Write a sequence for this structure.
């Protein structure tokens, strides 16, 4: 499919958002989701539980997690070539997916090599999530519901791990999709603070219609620098309590961890997210050189296309062990604006690492596994800090006290005082209370509270700026005629 054969209005948004090869738009035929087929697709047999796990998914053991803006087609294809058995789409926001055509096109990339594939959705409105999932169900093997995202955006949108307390909504979401889709429904959760409550939560999800459950062995608060260690013991308890397949997520750094987690927990598969971004060969046990993995990924991008932001983020992750020794390349990579720019920086890094490997530089090793920096490797966490996360979790939630400045220099003290002076308010103060800022649209130069009091005193004078209008009292009904 070539650029000159397509009306520009149909690809203008994609050209702005997604890197496309010079002439080739996609390497496989992609049809828009709104296009109506002349023949209705054949309805697949809807399998459940282990029958679905074995016959539809092929009993996957190595699973790449759904990652926002990171598990796009190019990365999924790379994963499949290095030992991954099952992949997920990036998390899809159901409401935006329904209303925004450009957003939908970002997920409209599929390949036969990408099978099996599960699409993950987030949301809290069952009919909306169902309608969005129906647009994509014929292109995937299952639809996954995100009940594990701990980020602030999930809290504001009331989805992900922030539905843990709302079991009714969780139950309705799963049941609605289970009854309304032609493909099975799977779920991904985080554990709760209470172990018994976590087991009840998992059983409720299974009873609602979930056919496969992924358990991230961390709580909602364990994120970022407070990630700590995932709890494999509770994952084992969940696995023993349920009758559906269970995947484990958390604490996977090396290929040995994959085998050890399956032995400890007895789960049916292992999911990896952060480690896979740093080392896509984690499921194969291979030691792949950084430049070889980078070249493979960039070549796939040239074939199928990918959002530029995702390309740059992936390269930063792949190079995380090399960049501290190549600060100048870090700066060059951060200022790149095209795929060609990234390829040029990659060639420079490749030459340096090849030379470094020839010289066997003793400094080019990471601390734990002694893996040379020219090999793909995970980002090692501070284990000592992780061990104290649970003990200090209550302290972490308390507001931090401001540190007192110990400054002897009088001139420096004056500068601090000047910096601490509050900035002038954006709007002049309210003419009545003198404390709150007045509204720019208020014709009386008052804050909303004072303007409401003014309306009570002068009920005939409205304030359109504050949307305060006189209350019209309704006539009382006549009695008994």
């Amino acid at each position: 499919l070539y650029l000159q054969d397509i009306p520009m209005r149909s690809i203008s948004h994609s050209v702005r958002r997604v890197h496309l090869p010079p002439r080739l738009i996609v390497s496989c035929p992609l049809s828009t989701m709104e296009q109506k087929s002349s023949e209705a697709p054949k309805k697949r047999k809807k399998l459940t539980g282990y029958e679905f796990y074995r016959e539809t998914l092929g009993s996957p053991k190595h699973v790449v997690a759904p990652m926002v803006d990171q598990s796009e087609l190019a990365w999924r294809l790379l994963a499949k070539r290095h030992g991954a058995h099952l992949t997920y789409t990036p998390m899809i926001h159901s409401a935006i997916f329904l209303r925004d055509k450009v957003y939908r096109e970002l997920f409209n990339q599929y390949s036969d090599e990408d099978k099996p594939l599960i699409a993950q959705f987030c949301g809290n409105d069952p009919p909306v999530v169902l309608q969005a999932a129906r647009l994509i169900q014929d292109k995937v093997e299952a639809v996954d519901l995100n009940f594990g995202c701990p980020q602030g955006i999930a809290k504001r949108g009331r989805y992900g791990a922030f539905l843990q307390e709302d079991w009714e909504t969780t139950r309705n979401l799963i049941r609605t999709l289970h009854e309304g889709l032609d493909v099975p429904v799977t779920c991904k959760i985080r554990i709760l603070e209470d172990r018994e409550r976590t087991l009840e939560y998992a059983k409720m999800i299974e009873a609602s219609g979930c056919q496969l459950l992924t358990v991230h062995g961390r709580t909602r608060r364990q994120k970022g620098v407070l990630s700590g260690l995932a709890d494999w013991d509770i994952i084992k308890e969940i696995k023993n309590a349920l009758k559906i397949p269970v995947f484990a997520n958390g604490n996977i750094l090396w290929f040995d961890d994959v085998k050890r987690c399956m032995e400890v927990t007895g789960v049916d598969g292992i999911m990896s997210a952060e480690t896979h971004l740093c080392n896509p060969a984690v499921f194969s046990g291979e030691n792949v050189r950084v430049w070889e993995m980078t070249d493979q990924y960039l070549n796939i991008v040239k074939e199928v296309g990918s959002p530029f932001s995702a390309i740059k983020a992936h390269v930063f992750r792949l190079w995380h062990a090399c960049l501290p020794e190549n600060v100048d390349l870090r700066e060059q990579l951060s200022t790149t604006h095209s795929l060609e720019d990234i390829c040029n920086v990659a060639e420079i890094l490749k030459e340096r690492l090849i030379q470094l490997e020839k010289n066997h530089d003793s400094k080019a090793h990471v601390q734990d596994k002694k893996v040379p920096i020219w090999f793909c490797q995970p980002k090692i966490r501070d284990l000592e800090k992780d061990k104290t996360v649970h003990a200090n979790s209550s302290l972490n939630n308390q507001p931090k006290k401001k540190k007192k400045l110990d400054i002897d220099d009088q001139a420096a003290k004056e500068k601090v005082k000047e910096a601490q002076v509050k900035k002038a308010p954006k709007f002049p103060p309210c003419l009545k209370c003198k404390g709150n800022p007045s509204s720019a649209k208020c014709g009386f130069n008052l804050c909303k509270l004072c303007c409401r009091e003014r309306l009570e005193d002068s009920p005939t004078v409205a304030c359109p700026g504050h949307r305060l209008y006189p209350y019209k009292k309704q006539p009382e009904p006549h009695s008994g005629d």
Summary: Confidence is low (pLDDT under 50) at residues 1-18, 20-39. The radius of gyration is 28 Å.
